Amino acid sequence: MGIFRRGPRRDASDVPRDPEFGFFSNDEGARFRAVVREAFAELGLEVTVYADSVKDSGGRRFGLGNLAAVCHNEPRGPRVWPELIRRHVGMVLRTMDAPSALDTMAPEQIRAQLYPRVISGDGLDPQSFGYARSVAPGLYEILALDLPESVMMLTDEALEPLGKVPDLREQALRNLRELPVEGHETVKGDDGTRFDIVVGDSFYTASRVLALEAVVRQVTGRELPPEGALVAMPFRHQLAFHVIRDSGMVLALNAMASFAASGYEDTPGSISPYVYWWRGGTLTQLSDRDGEGLRIVVGEDFGELLEKLVDDETDGL
Questions:
Q1: Which domain of life is it from (predicted)?
Q2: Do 309 and 249 touch, CB atoms closer than 8 A?
Q3: CB within 10 Å: which end of the chain, N or C, has fewer?
């Protein structure tokens, strides 16, 4: 999985755009939805196609946002969209038609496959996920059951027979810490910029920010200092970090702000376009976007840390 995504050559950007998925042209959007409808029909299910979803005769609705983003980011282009879409639709229907894993799996197995996930709050139903923990503005931690073909986000009702939420969360964090690092790349700039990126097919790669100490130890062989780290989770398959040891973090902060904003756009499982300061498990947002583009927002605590690092380096001269 590459860090910087370069999309396939398709319709020019100046042709009329799809009103729901702006990364498609009108023609590409129509082609995408036609293939989706065909894929459901091939499996015996007629669906009504809407701009952002399809609905079957039983009222079940299937969102298209993530699948559209997957097709958009596929480097082989539209020629393989039918293959991707048929595979996705087949997986979704098998998952929905199968007995619930919560009814067929032993409690010990469920706990062994339990993981925390950091997700955007967009679309999160507070009535179903009342236990969700806020980790930063607009970001929440929920618990998920990892299955062979899908990830089941667990509601309040699903968790109730499994035990107390704090105990389940501790088990999920233990499972998260034990995950291997699938891939690691280091970004280095001519100006001295440096930050690390953990990448992987796991749906919990970005969520490993919740166990950052373990990730840093695995990747660098060193412990996190009290000053913490800069982190970014643009989408579910990437976690970027820069361990704060000196004032070089300023260069990393600017580079990571651009990286996070770029990686967030038009990706399946997008989480956040911002950079955060991780310290003692707490996330503080440091970058933002407005009409003029990216900007860095430094609070009093972070400003004091920067001044201390600069003073320490000056004293050492």
A1: Bacteria
A2: yes
A3: C
